[in-house]
Known about the structure:
The protein is α+β, with helices and mostly antiparallel strands. The chain has a single domain, classed as Alpha-Beta Plaits, CATH 3.30.70. Helix content is about 20%, strand content about 25%. The chain has helices spanning about 20, 65-75, 115, 130-145, 165-170, 195-200, 200-205, 220-225, 265-275; strands at about 50-55, 80, 90-100, 120-125, 150-155, 185-195, 210-215, 215-220, 235-240, 255-260, 285-290, 290-295. The strands form 2 sheets. Strands 1, 2, 3, 4, 5, 6, 9, 10, 11 and 12 form a 10-stranded mixed sheet that branches. Strand 7 and strand 8 form a beta hairpin. The longest helix has 15 residues, at about 130-145.
Amino acid sequence: MHITDGIQPDDALDTCYGGAYLAPMPAPIRVPNPAPRTADDVRSMEPIRHGAYLCLSAAHRGRRIAAEVSALAERLELLNEAEPGDDHPPLAIGLLRRVDATPPPRAIDTADDALLATLAIVHVAAPSPGPVQALCAELTRLVAPAAPPRILGGVVRPMTYTGAAMFNFAYAHRVLQQPARVAPHAFFVPLTKTAAWWQKDWMERHTYFLPRYADGRMVSQGHALASAAGVASLMRRTYKHPTEPAPPGTYDFLTYFECADAGVPVFHEVCAALRDEARNPEWAFVREGPTWHGRRVASWDELFE
């Protein structure tokens, strides 16, 4: 090695740039690894259907507006659910005459005297909000000077918790909407869930719909199994409030069922199973409104017979 640590032509062993004593070796240039490419495949939860139930009281009984309601439905291209075709019409109007209404079973449930006093319900649904809003506004005008009908509305969104296996269990062979003469009974049951429910993340809420097991033994059925008896008998429809949770004084869910005469005891059996918190722990977080039982009819004049 050369004592001055300089590089000379004959310094065969001293091949390090700058020598050992002059300067450190430059740090290697590090090229950061690029971030991995990711998908942008978030599934939309925007509403795919809008609907409303217009609750009519004794104040609306005397309004003779059958021709006007029929013309309104025709103008909005609403198909009468009394003859629905293959299933729910995309644009629909349904008419329900009261059979009875019962208060919810628990003191902690939601008292709703207005729904208990409702004599008839008009249902309207469409893929967009416009026809629903138009029918609500025009029917309110038609029943004047009586007070406006109470309107309970909501939306249908893509399924949140339902994968392929659960869909095949609960919906693959679901009951489609039948003509009113085949399935004349309608049950309307609005529900709210407690603040404790909405404080849970979606994964924990999901667990309440499934059975629970301990050491290989089922300890509770969960919502899906507790309500399984209704899959083959009850046509089911649920609207959710556009915001979750719903504002105070409104309902989170508007559940609705149709069935033939033979399905009526099945409906009550399913309700009893869901209310059994040992079988269905989810119900501890549910606050029911009244159960309103109606009969499906084809025209305004039949609503108050």
